[in-house]
Specification:
Length: about 140
């Protein structure tokens, strides 16, 4: 159900502060019914927050995820997760593994420049559920 992102929209979204990217993310994944992350030969890509929690990064579109295919996650590729699978399987798996979720991190050429909004799986589930109620 994805649509083609326009360059103007991409530039505008990337320049938003993390909290506004979070709001954009929630609306877009509910519209498209998909979530994107990065996977490499070792599995799904992760990063650590300032307290050494493992964080699973996700984006609303493959194009945004692909911006983090660089020296930081160099051998990775964007991979789609259906919103239903994410809500039904991934949220509980991330809870069980005690991982957090990084919403819309941004990368520069060599590192993770902005970790985005880092939330618990429970908080993300609640925010997505509230947006789904509007449909």
């Amino acid at each position: 159900m994805s649509y083609k992102l326009l360059e103007q929209e991409i530039k505008a979204v990337i320049n938003l502060p993390a909290q506004k990217r979070y709001s954009y993310f929630i609306k877009k994944i509910v519209d498209s019914e998909e979530v994107w992350s990065l996977v490499d030969s070792q599995g799904w890509c992760l990063f650590s927050d300032s307290e050494n929690n493992e964080v699973f990064p996700i984006w609303s579109d493959a194009k945004y995820a692909s911006f983090c295919v660089n020296e930081y996650w160099g051998e990775s590729n964007p991979k789609k997760i259906s919103l239903n699978d994410f809500l039904d399987k991934w949220i509980s798996g991330l809870q069980k593994d005690k991982r957090l979720i990084g919403i819309f991190p941004l990368c520069n050429s060599s590192n993770l420049a902005d970790k985005g909004v880092v939330v618990s799986p429970e908080r993300l589930y609640q925010d997505i559920s509230e947006e789904l109620e509007k449909y």
